[in-house]
Amino acid sequence: MRPFLSGACLCAVLLAVAPSGGAQDWKSALKQMGGSTSGSKGSQSALSQSDMSGGLKEALALGSERAIKGLSRSGGFLDDKNVRIPLPGSLRKMESSLRMLGQGKAVDEFLQTANRAAEQAIPKAAPIVGDAIRGMSFSDARQILSGPDDSATRYFRDKTSGALGRALLPIVSGATDKAGVTRAYKNMIEKAGPAASMLGDDLDVDEYITGKTLDGLFLKLAEEEKSIRHDPVARSTDLLRKVFGS
Q1: 24-77 tens-digit pLDDT
Q2: Contact 240/55 with Cβ under 8 angstroms?
Q3: Is 135 exposed, middle or buried (0-12, 13-18, 19+ CB in 10 A)?
Q4: What is the distance between the alpha carbons of residues 217 and 237, in angstroms, rounded to a whole number?
Q5: How far apart are alpha carbons 220 and 15 in whole angstroms?
Q6: Burial class (CB in 10 A: 0-12, 13-18, 19+), 27
Q7: Nearby residues of 63 by Cβ (< 8 Å), 6 or more positions away
């Protein structure tokens, strides 16, 4: 049975926003970043910066937890049409024809294995996402909060795509090798004939699946970010309500 997202992986995201060497939980650390509301004008300015950065980091920690947990469950990719990994390229348009040619088993094998591999690999994103949250500066936070609804997700994509790809690829490769999905893919290409020749034999199936896995992750992160920005119900802590409600 495919493992669900482990508690350790979720903690890697949430605890990444706490100061290094601290034994506090992430919520306590973020609240302490806000400092005191009393004092001089300078201290109030610092408070505003701290609240802004802390609120964004808390939002990203919560959004990442929800996105990764949802995608890592059984059917997290396969049963969600918005992130389901399809056949590559021209084969996607020829799926019905392939099934008529007796390749239904190969098609199903590819789709199921590709999406199950994504579900298995996605928990590895948690510590990398946590590093990006921890490394976010006041300047980053200010630009993100004043930007469009997916500003933080764009920041994530820029900062983590390379590391995420390297972390997820070996897990995807192991899953596809075990299921023989590359062989199934080549069989589909052969049966599809000239119409699929533009795909060639050079497509790296594992890299394709890994790329689609990341697309799914960033899509879900963007949905969570937008929800926290606009839906008061999604702001589940005092700091989120303070920062995103203003």
Answers
A1: 333 343 344 333 333 334 433 433 677 777 777 877 888 899 999 999 999 999
A2: yes
A3: exposed
A4: 23
A5: 21
A6: middle
A7: 152, 221, 224, 225, 227, 228
pLDDT digits (tens, 9 = 90+) for 172-219: 999 888 877 777 777 777 776 665 655 555 678 899 999 999 999 999
pTM of the complete model beyond 0.85: no
Query: Which residue in 246, 242, 7 sits closest to 123, CA to CA?
Result: 7
- 47 contact partners, CB below 8 Å, separation of at least 6: 34, 35, 36, 37
Answer left, alpha or beta for residue 11, where phi above 0 means left and psi between -120 and 50 means alpha. Answer: alpha
Cβ atoms of 172 and 80 closer than 8 Å: no
Closest CA to 17 of 63, 58, 51: 58
> Whole-angstrom Cα distance, residue 13 to residue 173?
24
What mean pLDDT is reported for the chain?
75
Q: 8, exposed or middle or buried, with CB in 10 Å at 0-12, 13-18, 19+?
A: exposed
Report the run of H or E that residue 81 belongs to, with start and end: none
The residue among 8 and 237 whose pLDDT is bigger is 237
